[in-house]
C-alpha cells in the first residue's frame, strides 16, 4: 500500500473522505504540515473535503514573515482558503513562551473551526512525535492511564482534532517531500537540544531505532493495546460501581468485598463520577487508605482545593469544601482610663499608670494631645516609630517575632487620639525621646495571669 493510499484510508476512517465536509488544516510551513497539505490536495476532487488552511505567524523568528508570505502565495495559486493569525511580539510572555504560543495557536484553530463550520481540524503529528511523547511521559512518571500518547482523533471545540499522519515516520514524510519537490521551511529551534523534546528527537529516538528499526511501529502497537486495556478497565469499573453504592454514597463494606485489585480503581471511578474530576490513582493512595479505616465517628478529609470526603457510619460521600470566611474582629475602640487595668483577653489586662504597677512596666513619655488613649486590633498600615527615626510595620514586627499566623489577627495596639500607634501590646513599643518637651512620664503595663512567655520588648 502506498503512502497516499494509506493516508486516504486514515481520512476515510475519520469519515472525512467526502466533499460535503470542510476541514481546517493547521500548516506551519514545516515539512510535516506541507506534506499533509499536499496529500490533501492530491485526494480526487470527488472525494476531497473542502479545505481551509490555518496559519499562525508567531513572530519568533526572522523568517516567519517570509513563511507567511510563501503560504499566502501557495494557497492563492491552488486556490485554497487561508486564515492567518499574528501572535505579535508585544504579546509574548517573559516566561513560558512555548506553552503560551501553543495556547494562542489552538485558540485560533478553534475559532476558525467554529467560523467555517468545519467538521475537523487536521494537524501533522506523526509516529516520531508519538514516540517522543511516550518517552517524555515515561520519564515523568505517573499512572498507567497517563501514559496514553497522541490520539488519532479527539473532540475539539465544535468538531474533532484529527492526526492522519500518525502512522507515518518522519523519514517517510521527508522522503515524500523530496520526491514531490515540496518547498518547506526548517525551524532552527528544532535543533536546540536544551529542550527536552529536541534531545529525545535528536539523540534518544534515533538510538532506539538503531537498536530496533521497528521501534516506532512497536510504540504504535503499545498505544493501541493500552487504549484497549483502559477501555476494558473503564467498562469493568462502570459494571462494579452500582454494586458498592447506595444512592450516590460509597458503602465501604461493599467496596471491601470486591477483588483487591479492583478496589482502588472503583474508588477512583466513584470519585470521578461524584466530583466530576479525574484524580490519578497514585495521588488517591492516602485518601483510599483513609476511607478504608474503620471509625465510629464522623471524619473528614480534604481531597483537593474544592472537594472533601466525609465518612459517616461506614459510608463515604464527596462534598464541596466549605468556604471558611475569616471572621474579622470588629474594629471597636476600648477607651483607656489612667490607673485602671483593662482586660483585653481572658488572661491579659493592659493599663496606663502614673506609677509603675509591676516590675516590667515600661516608662513612656505622654503628651496631653495624645489623650484619649484607645486599645484596638491592629490594622494594615499601622506602624511604630524606631529609635533611628524610621518606621516599622506592625505586620513585619509580628512576622519577625515569629508570631503564629493564626494569632497575628488578635494582636492589640495602643493608639493616641490621632491614631498614632504607641505600643504593639506584648511585643514592641514605639520610640519617643524620654526628654521631649511638654510630656509626662507614664507607665505602660501588661498583666498576664500566666506570666510564662510574656515579654515586653523595646
TrEMBL record:
CDD domains: TilS_N
One Pfam family cited in the UniProt record for this chain: ATP_bind_3
GO molecular function: tRNA(Ile)-lysidine synthase activity
Primary enzyme class: ligase
Highest taxon listed in the record's lineage: Bacteria
UniProt-listed SUPFAM superfamilies: Adenine nucleotide alpha hydrolases-like, PheT/TilS domain
Catalytic activity, reaction form: cytidine(34) in tRNA(Ile2) + L-lysine + ATP = lysidine(34) in tRNA(Ile2) + AMP + diphosphate + H(+)
Entry-linked InterPro entries: Lysidine-tRNA-synth_C, Rossmann-like_a/b/a_fold, TilS/TtcA_N, tRNA_Ile_lys_synt, tRNA_Ile_lys_synt_N
Compartmental location: Cytoplasm
Span of domain Lysidine-tRNA(Ile) synthetase C-terminal: 373-443
Keyword hit for ATP-binding: yes
Keyword terms, alphabetized: ATP-binding, Cytoplasm, Ligase, Nucleotide-binding, tRNA processing
EC number: 6.3.4.19
General function of this protein: Ligates lysine onto the cytidine present at position 34 of the AUA codon-specific tRNA(Ile) that contains the anticodon CAU, in an ATP-dependent manner. Cytidine is converted to lysidine, thus changing the amino acid specificity of the tRNA from methionine to isoleucine.
Protein family per UniProt: Belongs to the tRNA(Ile)-lysidine synthase family.
NCBIfam families: lysidine_TilS_C, lysidine_TilS_N
Protein name as catalogued: tRNA(Ile)-lysidine synthase
The species this protein was found in: Lactiplantibacillus nangangensis
Lineage of origin: Bacteria, Bacillati, Bacillota, Bacilli, Lactobacillales
Gene name per UniProt: tilS
Amino acid at each position: 500500500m502506498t503512502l497516499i493510499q494509506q493516508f486516504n484510508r486514515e481520512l476515510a476512517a475519520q469519515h472525512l473522505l467526502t466533499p460535503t465536509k470542510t476541514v481546517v488544516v493547521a500548516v506551519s510551513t514545516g515539512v510535516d504540515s506541507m506534506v499533509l497539505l499536499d496529500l490533501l490536495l492530491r485526494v480526487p476532487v470527488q472525494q476531497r473535503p473542502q479545505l481551509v488552511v490555518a496559519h499562525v505567524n508567531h513572530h519568533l523568528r526572522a523568517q516567519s514573515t517570509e513563511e507567511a508570505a510563501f503560504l499566502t502565495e501557495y494557497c492563492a495559486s491552488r486556490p485554497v482558503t487561508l486564515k492567518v493569525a499574528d501572535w505579535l511580539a508585544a504579546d509574548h510572555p517573559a516566561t513560558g513562551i512555548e506553552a503560551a504560543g501553543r495556547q494562542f495557536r489552538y485558540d485560533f484553530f478553534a475559532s476558525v473551526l467554529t467560523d467555517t463550520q468545519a467538521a475537523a481540524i487536521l494537524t501533522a503529528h506523526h509516529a516520531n512525535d508519538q514516540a517522543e511523547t511516550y518517552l517524555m511521559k515515561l520519564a515523568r512518571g505517573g499512572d498507567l492511564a497517563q501514559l496514553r500518547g497522541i490520539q488519532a482523533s479527539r473532540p475539539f471545540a465544535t468538531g474533532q482534532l484529527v492526526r492522519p499522519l500518525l502512522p507515518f515516520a518522519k523519514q517517510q514524510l521527508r522522503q515524500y517531500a523530496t520526491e514531490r519537490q515540496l518547498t518547506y521551511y526548517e525551524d532552527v529551534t528544532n535543533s536546540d537540544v536544551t529542550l527536552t523534546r529536541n534531545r529525545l528527537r535528536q539523540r534518544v529516538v534515533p538510538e532506539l531505532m538503531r537498536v530496533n528499526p521497528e521501534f516506532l511501529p512497536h510504540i504504535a502497537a503499545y498505544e493501541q493495546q493500552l487504549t484497549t486495556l483502559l477501555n476494558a478497565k473503564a467498562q469493568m469499573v462502570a459494571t462494579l460501581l452500582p454494586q458498592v453504592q447506595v444512592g450516590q454514597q460509597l458503602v465501604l463494606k461493599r467496596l471491601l468485598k470486591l477483588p483487591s485489585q479492583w478496589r482502588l480503581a472503583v474508588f477512583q471511578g466513584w470519585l470521578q463520577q461524584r466530583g466530576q474530576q479525574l484524580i490519578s490513582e497514585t495521588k488517591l493512595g492516602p485518601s483510599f487508605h483513609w476511607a478504608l479505616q474503620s471509625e465510629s465517628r464522623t471524619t473528614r478529609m480534604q481531597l483537593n482545593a474544592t472537594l472533601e470526603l466525609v465518612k459517616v457510619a461506614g459510608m463515604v460521600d464527596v462534598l464541596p469544601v466549605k468556604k471558611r470566611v475569616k471572621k474579622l474582629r470588629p474594629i471597636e475602640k476600648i477607651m483607656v482610663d489612667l490607673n485602671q487595668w483593662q482586660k483585653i483577653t481572658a488572661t491579659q489586662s493592659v493599663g496606663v499608670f502614673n506609677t509603675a504597677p509591676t516590675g516590667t512596666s515600661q516608662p513612656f513619655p505622654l503628651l496631653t494631645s495624645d489623650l484619649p488613649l484607645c486599645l484596638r486590633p491592629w490594622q494594615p498600615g499601622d506602624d511604630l516609630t524606631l529609635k533611628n527615626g524610621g518606621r516599622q510595620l506592625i505586620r513585619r514586627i509580628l512576622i519577625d517575632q515569629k508570631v503564629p499566623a493564626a494569632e497575628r489577627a488578635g494582636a492589640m495596639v495602643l493608639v493616641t487620639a490621632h491614631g498614632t500607634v504607641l505600643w504593639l501590646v506584648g511585643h514592641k513599643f514605639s520610640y519617643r525621646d524620654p526628654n521631649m518637651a511638654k510630656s509626662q512620664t507614664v507607665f505602660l503595663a501588661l498583666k498576664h495571669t500566666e506570666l510564662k512567655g510574656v515579654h515586653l520588648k523595646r
